[in-house]
Amino acid sequence: MATKHYCMPDPSVGLMDKMILEQIDSGSRVVDLGCGDGRLLEQLRHQNGCSVQGVELDVEEIKRAITRGVPVIHADLDKGLVDVPDSAFDWAVLSQTLQQVARPQSLLLEMLRVARKALVVVPNFGYWRVRRQLLFRGRAPVTSALPYEWYNTPNRHFMSMYDFRDLVAESNIAIQREIPFIGDHPAENAWLTNLRAHNVLYVLERGN
Amino acid sequence: MTTETTTSSDSEQGSVGIVERKTVRLFDAPNQLDMKCGTKFGPIDVAYETYGELSEQRDNAIFVCHALTGDAHVAGYHSPDDQKPGWWDEFVGPGKALDTRKYFVICANALGGCQGTTGPTSIDPDCGQPFALNLPVISISDIIDVHAELVRYLGIEKLLAIIGGSLGGMQVLDWAVRYPEQMDGVICLASGPRLSAQGIAFNAVGRRAIVVDPQYHAGDYYGKEEGPRYGLALARMVAHITYLSEASIEKKFGRRLQDSDEFAYKLEKETEFQIESYLHYQGKRFVERFDANSYMYLTKAMDYFDLAEGYESLADALSQSQASFLIASYTTDWLFPTIQSREIVTALIGSGKRVTFAEFDSPFGHDSFLLEFEQLEELVSPFLTQAFAARRGKSS
Fold first, then answer.
1. What is the distance in angstroms between the CA of the first residue and the CA of the last residue of chain B?
2. pLDDT above 50 (res A79)
């Protein structure tokens, strides 16, 4: 069956949480899309004094979140954020999920409808290891160390940093910050990021 | 209080045991209830039950609002000979979702009901006869004013939580809007901010069935040989269909016949199909325990209910609340479909409240909240634990 092939690393949970926490102003209202068990929101509330709200599709995760005291609404991101009124939040967070939703552009626009700022973390499929794998082994990339194959991975879209920048430009969204992750480190002003970064954190705003 | 608690370990679930219904008279003149219809009314007798112990700090009380045909008897038994426990016995008791080892649970029969609280069957002190239709028209807000007064009478300033499904959910929402500081948690199940046109339609058919029964006598049937039994049974049969789902009755009854393998080809045979037999049974049972005039009053209260009435929007109505909300709906509920719960969720998010919402997958239609205990407990139990911890954290 499947030969062993390269899996893109997910940046460590701790590092990613730390980076997200650093971006978000204390006391702000934050909605985390695909919040899982509410781990990030719990930290945002305790460390940043934010008022938090999760959105999650899996009821089992909602049960875990409620145990942490994190409020979560049950919704499918592929159907938009119909339950959330305009400008209800300061921040909408979407970590490592954009490549999994049916319509990434619609969701980005939805995020900036319900919040002033959007924070997204996306994998960069322009990463050199992915390119090498495709070039020499002829294998499609999968993210993370989980045992997914191309036919059952939750990832539906494969984009590079260049592709992502094109998307936001076309969507009249402004990139306020772009923080690539190279190895174990955030590297905001690094060279050749589209080749070297495996994941990127973006802070986005509505364009003019 | 009068609750007898069985001893059990942490994980073990038990019964609250033998419980007693209590009654208190509230709203004596001159402090009569200002009713929404414009009338002053009182005194009002309130029948209620409590389970568990009220803590010294009086901070562990949970009020259960019952649905249309429920009563104050939520859990346990009135006597050792009782065949059936209270209507939410699987949800309320030691080790259960509303854990009576931790919480003090209260439930009162709603104003206008027929299980001990003042309603059409109660005696009008002015004439010594039952009120029948001389009771003022009752609104959900009147029911809540009475509940809130009972809570004050019990010496509780702020409830830990209020919980209810269906008509009970409407009560809970009204309570949260009009007494925004009286609770920490609000749990609303299979309900909505108002009844849909479809819901009003079914209630209208039910009321019509009662009114056209020759034994109804314009509501003045008490003391007569027979009340509007057929009308009330028919009302219940229609309503009962709305509590189930297409899939659940298909599975439970299908097209199966009651006591034959072949069609009888007789029009007068009323219980040929199993579903017919079941509905007739439900109607018959209901007549034994419920009053037709109460049904008239409470369905009307349900029809009139509109949480946003008098406010700019639903979000505006809920804006004063200090509580955390837990809203749940069921995939197959077509009487209070999920979209109505979502409307509440949107309003709560819009007004910056903490809200958890889940749509449960259940085949049982509207009645799911009375049947699917496990999944509901998995949300309600941690929600209450959090609310209780927050309360104790604040007060210490």
1. 26
2. yes
By CA distance, what is B383's nearest residue in A? A66
pLDDT band for A145, please (50, 70, 90 cuts): very low
Whether the Cβ atoms of residue B228 and residue B296 lie closer than 8 Å to each other: no
- Please judge whether A53 and B359 are an interchain contact, meaning their C-beta atoms are less than 8 angstroms apart: no
Classify residue B240 by burial, with Cβ atoms within 10 Å: 0-12, 13-18, 19+: middle
pTM higher than the cut 0.90: yes
Position A133 scores a pLDDT of 79
- Domain boundary residue, one of B299, B330, B354: B299
Q: Is the peptide bond before B30 cis (omega within 30 degrees of 0)?
A: yes
- E-assigned strand segments in A18-114: 29-33, 51-56, 72-74, 89-95
This complex has an ipTM of 0.88
Which residue in B73, B333, B367, B368 is the catalytic one?
B333
Domain boundary residue, one of B277, B299, B321: B299
Block means of pLDDT (10 residues each) for chain B, 396 residues, are 45 88 97 97 97 97 97 97 95 97 98 98 94 97 98 98 98 98 98 97 98 97 94 98 95 93 88 94 96 98 98 96 97 97 97 96 94 94 96 72
Show the domains of chain A with their CATH numbers.
Answer: 11-124+156-206 (3.40.50.150)
Output the domain CATH number for residue B281. Answer: 1.10.1740.110
- Across A137-158, average pLDDT: 73
Query: B223 with B81, same domain?
Result: no
Set of chain B residues whose Cβ sits within 8 Å of the Cβ of A83 = 342, 345-346, 349, 357
Taken in order B30, B31, B35, B38, the sign of the CA dihedral is positive
Q: Is B10 annotated as catalytic? A: no
Query: How many CB contacts within 8 angstroms connect chain A with chain B?
Result: 60
Alpha carbon distance B11, B94 (integer Å): 9
Domain membership of residue B154 as a residue range? 22-195+301-395
Give residue-wise pLDDT tens across range A172-187. 999 999 999 888 888 8
How much is the mean pLDDT over chain A? 88
Residue B11 designated active-site: no
Residue B8 lies in a domain: no
Q: Are residues B313 and B328 in the same domain?
A: yes
**At CB < 8 Å, which residues of chain B contact A?**
315, 324-326, 342, 345-346, 349-350, 352, 354-361, 375, 378-379, 382-383, 385-386, 389-390
Q: Are residues B170 and B236 in the same domain?
A: no
Does B333 qualify as catalytic in the annotation? yes
Predicted local distance difference test score (pLDDT) of residue A11: 64
Q: Does B317 share its domain with B261?
A: no
Residue where the block lists tokens 């494969």: A158
